Amino acid sequence: MSDQQFLMGKVLIVDDNPQLIKMLSAILRGICTVSFALSGEEALKVAAQQKPQVILLDMQLPGMNGFETCRALKSSAETCNAAILFLTAHSESDFEVKALELGAVDFIAKPFNSAVVMARVKTQLLLAAQTETLRQYAERDALTGLYNRRYFDKKLDEEVAWHRRQALPMAVTLLDIDHFKLYNDGYGHVAGDHCLRQVAEILSESLRRPGEFVARYGGEEFCTVHPYNDKEQAGKIGQYLCEQVRKAQIPQEFSPTASFLTVSVGTVSFVPTLDMKLQDVLACADKALYLAKQSGRNTARTNSFA
């Protein structure tokens, strides 16, 4: 197990003893980045900012004790996935049972054994890395590397809820590669897969603003989400995405639309309401996409959700 595997990992040490923090930091030097907090209250703030994979938490803290801090960390969406290891001189079964019930995963006994500290932290960092890899597989489309449909539905639902609370507009686009069947039939499926990856990369590089994201919707269809955009801005987004694909000049000799690859885009702009259904929003974007195709393809059309 190489230390290089853990260099991206983050560990938060929570203890009111600076010398102990210095000792643990020295033990862990080289396998992770270390931050620290001197109290439970400070730990909550640092953990929310740093999002460590592992938290070494002392039981005896000023203000909030270790149990209270553990409970608060596990109750927060920002920190609930961190692996918490208690630093303690306690070995009573009641203590360990309560710690485990609160969400702790392990214990490091005082006084510290450097080899034990290193081994237990490495184990949790490796588990965190493996969990992140599995999460990526669950959320990503295997061919293009974009978010998949399942993640898109989840993320769109979150964005809609946030914009509804703020009473702000947002936009969603459905994008379809023009005459992709002809491309596949003419160049072959291996080239077709490469084409999908090229378009995915173009779309990813085209989204620069905070909160924007793109997903593979299915087949040769993609979907993008754009926070804070009204109908006028949404129309510009659709045309911009068309232009970015055109600029790539990907050859498409089998297309009746152009000699290079093009896309059609349907965009819907809306301010979410409580009774709004996501399938209706997507149906609205799909209608705009249909109008773009009826208009000759290689263009965008915009719809408003009513």
UniProtKB/TrEMBL annotation:
The modification 4-aspartylphosphate is found at D58. It catalyses: 2 GTP = 3',3'-c-di-GMP + 2 diphosphate. Residues 10-125 form the Response regulatory domain. Residues 168-305 form the GGDEF domain. InterPro entries: CheY-like_superfamily, Diguanylate_Cyclase, GGDEF_dom, Nucleotide_cyclase, Rev_trsase/Diguanyl_cyclase, Sig_transdc_resp-reg_receiver. It comes from the Bacteria. Its EC number is 2.7.7.65. NCBIfam families: GGDEF. This is diguanylate cyclase.
